[in-house]
Amino acid sequence: MRILNASNARRYQLALRPGGEFVQIGSDGGLLETPVRHGALTIAPAERFDVVVYFSRYPVGSEVTLVNLLGRGRTGQVMRFRVVRPARDDSRVPERLSSVEPLDPGVAPVYREWRFSRGRVHGHQGWTINGLPFDQSRIDARPQLGDVEVWRLSSDLHHRVHIHLDPFQVVSRGGQDPGPFDRGWKDTVDLRPAEDVEVAVRFTGHRGRFLLHCHNLEHEDMAMMAAFATV
């Protein structure tokens, strides 16, 4: 299953009831190197997870519910599966899925900081990056094609940072190792309140103007975007 969080702002913590696990094989940008097992998946808007679920562990006649542990009432129930008959399945998830080239932050010639916070937008309260609202005539960074850069993303509240053009790799979260859902090639990262995440990014192939923004759509619509140009 490919799970996409297409909500405008809601985060989900997905779990299977009664019991079960997700075997994650892919993230936003494709296959992981090796599968990762999760008892629950925390997924922010625009994030994607490719997972395998083994329904063979449930007896025929079972009802399996995909629940949202962060929801209440109807927002706590996402989808229901009914196990109606046995079926032959000789597939398996291999121990090695792909080869992911690691981006070395130690060779990055440029280190940039992007602060996502509340601020004044044309005289009103809104959302800013580095204290500035979006201005389509302003370019805030000019990364060189082919260079690895390290970008530090920091927040005041909950923001979901999406970078256009090329995927990135999470280097650290809060000064520690990446989190359990940060593996592989990402293009969206869940930034929790008062948290910072460092990512290594390398843009290739296309020169031009692109965006990074919060993928909470209300924040994005209230000017929480910035433009960069690859050169």
Give a topology summary.
Elements: E1 2-4, E2 12-17, E3 22-27, E4 30-38, E5 41-43, E6 48-52, E7 63-68, E8 77-82, E9 110-121, E10 124-129, E11 148-155, E12 159-163, E13 168-173, E14 188-191, E15 196-202, E16 208-214, H1 217-221, E17 225-230
Parallel strand pairs: 9-11
Antiparallel strand pairs: 1-6, 2-5, 2-7, 3-4, 3-6, 7-8, 9-10, 11-15, 12-14, 12-16, 13-15, 16-17
Structure summarized in a few sentences:
Helices cover 2% and strands 45% of the residues. The protein is an all-beta fold.
Q: Can you describe what's shown?
A:
This protein has a five-stranded mixed beta sheet with strand order 10-9-11-15-13, with no helix packed on it. The chain is mainly beta. The protein is built from one helix and 17 strands. The chain folds into two domains: 2-82, Sandwich (Immunoglobulin-like), CATH 2.60.40.420; 105-230, Cupredoxins -  blue copper proteins (Immunoglobulin-like, Sandwich).
Element-by-element helix/strand order:
EEEEEEEEEEEEEEEEHE
- The CATH superfamily of the largest domain appears as Cupredoxins -  blue copper proteins
What structural class do you assign from the helix and strand content? mainly beta
Helix content: under 10%
Rg (CA only): 20 Å
Which residue ranges are poorly predicted, with pLDDT under 50 across at least 5 consecutive positions?
none
CATH architecture level-2 label of the largest domain: Sandwich
Number-wise, the strands total 17
The neighbouring-strand order within the major sheet is 10-9-11-15-13
Shape call = globular
Q: Which whole number gives the mean pLDDT?
A: 96
Strand content: over 45%
Whole-number total of structural domains: 2
Q: What is the terminal separation in angstroms? A: 38 Å
CATH topology of the largest domain: Immunoglobulin-like
- Mind telling me the CATH class of the largest domain? Mainly Beta
Number of helices: 1
The biggest sheet, with number of strands, parallel, antiparallel or mixed sense and barrel status, is: 5 strands, mixed
